[in-house]
Amino acid sequence: MDERKDTAVEALLEHLIEHGPGDIATVFGRAFELAMQIERERFLRAGPYERTAERLGYANGYKPKRIDTPAGTVTVEVPKTAGHDGAPFYPQSLERGRRSVRAVMLAVAEMYIKGVSTREVEAVMREFGIESLSSSQVSRAAKLLDDELEAWRNRPLGEIRYLILDARLTRRCTTAGSSATPPVLPAIGIGPGERRRVLGVSVALSEAEVHWRAFLQSLQARGPCGVDHVVSDGSP
Question: At what angle do helices 102-113 and 135-153 cross, to 10 degrees?
């Protein structure tokens, strides 16, 4: 590590000595920036103002970015590059940092979906050092849940011994100006290990055969095999 990086590390330690763990977010942010600078130098194959035959481009300043981390919300200066071919530079440490708070953002989305008020959610997140949540942050959190649900709805089903089908009525709701009680069409499977699992769920306009057929075709497309018995209430 060169003298410039040694100085940066020493400054971080001095800040930690002076402020203690109460301001760990600042220390984390500065250390994060140093890691991204090292990544940029490795990407360019040259340090600042260094001219070598292997150099791929040049540093092109920084772009501020607010990120939520396990240490709290911090603003970091993300290094940029220019003058090179191929894929643009993007710090892998930043991408890993974003993935590290996935569980936190999923928890935020779950709280909103379950009806927890915005103020209460913000109070909980503040305990973790996360600043007030913006609408875009909530949207990103909800998108994570959408991705998780989509992956679950399209996962391969594998071997199923017993298939259980039984529509359930939900609460009355208003859709397109009319009030109705739409049924939920669930499919429960029991595999070789004799454990039940939900294979899929569909919300339909009614329990008519056309809706059951579309739901069962979507299950069939996911590759179930080995079904010996089908149990239903006569609707399918």
Answer: 90
As a residue count, the chain comes to: 236
Pairing type for strands 173-175 and 168-169 reads unpaired
Write out the chain in H/E/C secondary structure: CCHHHHHHHHHHHHHHHHHHHHHHHHHHHHHHHHHHHHHHHHHHCCCCCCCCCCCCCEEEEEEEEEEEECCEEEEEEEEEEECCCCCCCCCHHHHHHHHHCHHHHHHHHHHHHCCCCHHHHHHHHHHCCCCCCCHHHHHHHHHHHHHHHHHHHCCCCEECCEEEECCEECCCEEECCEEECCEEEEEEEECCCCCEEEEEEEECCCCCHHHHHHHHHHHHCCCEECCCEEEECCCC
- Token pair of 119, please? 């103020």
Average pLDDT of the chain is 78
Look at residue 69 and tell me whether its pLDDT is greater than 80: no
Q: Residue 77 phi/psi, 5° resolution?
A: -95, 110
Which pLDDT tens digit goes with each residue over 145-182?
777 788 888 899 989 999 999 888 776 666 656 666 77
193 token code pair: 């290990």
Structural domain boundaries in the chain: 3-99, 103-153, 158-232
| CA–CA dist 60, 180 (Å, integer) | 59
Distance separating alpha carbons of residues 69 and 48, to the nearest angstrom: 28
